[in-house]
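Morning run. Coffee first, then this:
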Amino acid sequence: MKCKKKLEGSIKALEEKILRLELEYHKNGKVSGGEFNKRLGKVI
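And here it is:
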């Protein structure tokens, strides 16, 4: 069970990092939302 908890924690942390990165991209205007989502779709 400990491993599962650790894994869930890691996934949650990754999701938060992705959200932060996405916000940064939008703020900087380097990548359009559509382009970012296309790349994200390939990862998931």
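Helices lie at 2-28, 33-43. Good start to the day.
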